[in-house]
Amino acid sequence: MLKKLAIFDLDGTIVDAFDSIYETISFICDKLNLKKFDYLTVKKAVGSGDLKLMSNLFKDEEIIKLSHTLYRENYLRFLKGNVKVIDGTFDLFEELKRRNIKIALATNRSRFSLIPLLEETKLKNFFDFLVCADDVRKIKPDPEMILKIIEEFKFKKNDVFYVGDMMIDYLAGKNAGIDTFIVLTGVSDKKDFENINEVLIFENLFKLKNFLIDNKLI
């Protein structure tokens, strides 16, 4: 059946901001005289908000608190020029808009970095509604964000689909009871989902768009 609302994750799904995050973490390590992490380690630690990012990387509680403060104070300096829109995003969003489908965002990012990032990437005006970590009690994989968006539009769950790039996205969509699609544009690959038979995985957003059209979902 035709969908009325498309909900998207941000990092790794429609935006590649890993360079900006890595540069900020490297700055923090220099500031605190700590050994720098390799790029892949930082990339794999992303996805559950900036505080969780720190606890994924650092073990000492004081270092976690201090690094989180430094992250909040300095991240926007490394944002400009260090983020890019993932291939296929504009193409898919323009198609959804052409078909009068609402677009919402559900991200574990905090608003302090979300709005500047959306402005930097020229994506902000595509969205009809934004929900971030600051707006809920529990972030993904809890379904609260997605359910909040559905309630905002007063749509039935059958009218909605969600797109993400990680296991936490799959679980959030499943727990919300809506159709959920995974794109391999972020940190995950197919083997991360090999024990889940029902998950629909797409190599990129172009292939997802074709699937949605071919199956008359949009």
List keywords for this structure.
alpha/beta; 2 domains; six-stranded parallel beta sheet; Rossmann fold; 9 helices; globular; 218 residues
Q: How many discrete domains?
A: 2
CATH-defined superfamily of the largest domain: HAD superfamily/HAD-like
| Tally of DSSP β-strands | 8
| Strand line-up across the major sheet | 5-4-1-6-7-8
CATH topology of the largest domain: Rossmann fold
Largest sheet: number of strands, sense, barrel closure = 6 strands, parallel
SS strand fraction: 5-15%
In the CATH classification, which architecture of the largest domain applies?
Answer: 3-Layer(aba) Sandwich
Q: Report the oligomer.
A: single chain
Low-confidence stretches: none
Name the overall outline.
globular
**CATH domain class name of the largest domain:** Alpha Beta
Tell me the number of helical segments per DSSP (H or I, 4 or more residues long).
9
